[in-house]
Design brief:
Length: 137
């Protein structure tokens, strides 16, 4: 199992250079069980909309791009409860991350799973918590 952040998945879906230059990412994701926080689908959809608004893709391409997700085995974590919000907020503050980004790091930590991200702040937090990273350092 691997935790994959939304920005890395969108980069993969859009075949962006920063992901394509890392063969380890391109080849391994379809073979993995992917575990993501509950807000992940919204983040992916929002990133695609942002790309539409920036005219990098057309709205007509969104459905075919999302169809590519069908090759993955994606499991979505349950939403956090009101009671868990404080813990996640404190975790995010201690790691100097947004709560969105902290949710990926925390999920990887709790599941003892590697974290797939290109975000340097998330990678730094993962290193401090001894979480395996994809791509590796």
């Amino acid at each position: 199992m691997i935790v994959v952040d939304a920005s890395l998945m969108v980069a993969w879906l859009l075949q962006e250079d920063d992901v394509l230059i890392v063969p380890e990412v391109c080849q391994s994701l379809p073979e993995q069980d992917i575990f993501v926080p509950s807000h992940w689908p919204i983040e992916v959809a929002n990133a695609l909309l942002t790309n539409v608004r920036r005219r990098r893709i057309t709205i007509d391409k969104v459905d075919s791009i999302l169809d590519a997700l069908g090759i993955f085995r994606i499991m979505i974590d349950t939403p956090i409860t009101i009671d868990q919000m404080s813990d996640l907020t404190h975790f995010a503050a201690s790691q100097k991350l947004t709560v969105y980004d902290a949710s990926y790091v925390h999920l990887a930590f709790e599941e003892n799973a590697p974290l797939a991200t290109l975000d340097q702040d998330m990678r730094q937090a993962a290193r401090q918590l001894n979480i395996a990273l994809v791509p590796g350092d």
